[in-house]
Design goal:
Helix content: 40-55%
Number of domains: 1
Strand content: 15-25%
Strand order of the largest sheet: 3-2-1-4-6-7-9
CATH architecture: 3-Layer(aba) Sandwich
Number of strands: 9
Number of helices: 10
CATH superfamily: NAD(P)-binding Rossmann-like Domain
Structural class: alpha/beta
Length: about 290
């Protein structure tokens, strides 16, 4: 499809990674139900056949850790729809384990998906957005990208990395007309804790009261979290299309309360140690002029 043909549509083109379940599936479904053109991606396209039958869906096989597949998905999307207006980096996995227990191979695999896969998709879509001086990049983070919890320290690390990456990115590309938004949810019924999160095989008894307790609480809540991914999808789209999209979109009461609490904790500790913090700069020389 040529760009001139694409411009006859009112709705922008979205490409959403990780559409098999969770936020990816719910967002793609919401967009398709409301007339958007959507590049629906999944490692196994058979997992998104329900979406493939809806509206202007264009299904692409995509493992974000596979550069060839990522390049093909972006190239085919731009050829099919003429452009990509919104990239939603949603693909991600979890991993349970104390820092000391965690296995390097599992950690690296999670970083490849949660962080480097997101970076790859951003790199591939930015050139055309920059040329057009328009576009939006939505990076799905977590309340765990703002504050950490026992048992998911390395998962938190992937999301902290996404936060730092995104904050630098919006300072670089917003002057060029491109928006960047972080989505920071708390607990949602996305099966993240039940299906998408592996756990360490190296169990150390000393972490039973912290790591294992938190892990069990998260596992037990799977499917019963307060967050509704369908409502989250609607909120994400509304935020993207608002006149002034936020840099950070907290989703869920626990996310909002947890973020505000973290701000209060940081402020209190910073102020307590302010005199020491300010004492280490070299004295300024007084000019003789």
């Amino acid at each position: 499809m040529t760009r001139s043909h694409a411009e006859t549509f009112d709705k922008p083109v979205w490409i959403v990674t990780g559409c098999s379940t969770g936020f990816g599936h719910s967002t793609a479904k919401y967009l398709l139900q409301h007339g958007y053109r959507v590049v629906v991606t999944a490692r196994n396209p058979d997992d998104v056949q329900d979406l493939a039958q809806m509206g202007n869906a264009f299904v692409q096989r995509l493992d974000v850790t596979d550069r060839a597949q990522a390049e093909s998905a972006v190239r085919e999307a731009e050829h099919h729809f003429g452009c990509i207006d919104v990239l939603m980096n949603n693909a991600g996995v979890g991993y349970f384990g104390a820092i000391e227990e965690s296995e390097e191979q599992q950690i690296r695999q999670m970083f490849d998906i949660n962080f480097f896969g997101l970076c790859r998709m951003t790199h591939l879509t930015l050139p055309r957005m920059r040329k057009r001086r328009s576009g939006t990049i939505v990076n799905v983070s977590s309340i765990g990208g703002l504050r950490s919890f026992p048992s998911v320290g390395y998962y938190n690390a992937t999301k902290f990395a996404v936060e730092g990456f995104s904050e630098a990115l919006w300072q670089e590309v917003e002057p060029l007309g491109i928006k960047v938004m972080l989505v920071e949810p708390s607990g949602f019924r996305t099966d993240w804790a039940g299906r998408s999160a592996n756990e360490t095989q190296n169990k150390i008894d000393d972490y039973e009261a912290t790591v294992r307790k938190t892990q069990q609480q998260i596992r037990d809540s799977s499917g019963h979290q307060p967050g509704d991914p369908d409502l989250a999808a609607e909120a994400i789209v509304k935020a993207v299309e608002s006149a002034h999209p936020p840099h950070r979109l907290l989703l869920g009461n626990a996310a909002y309360d947890g973020a505000v609490s973290k701000l209060d904790e940081l402020r209190a500790e910073f102020q307590q140690w302010e005199s020491i913090s300010r004492s280490v700069d070299a004295p300024q020389e007084i000019s003789s002029d």
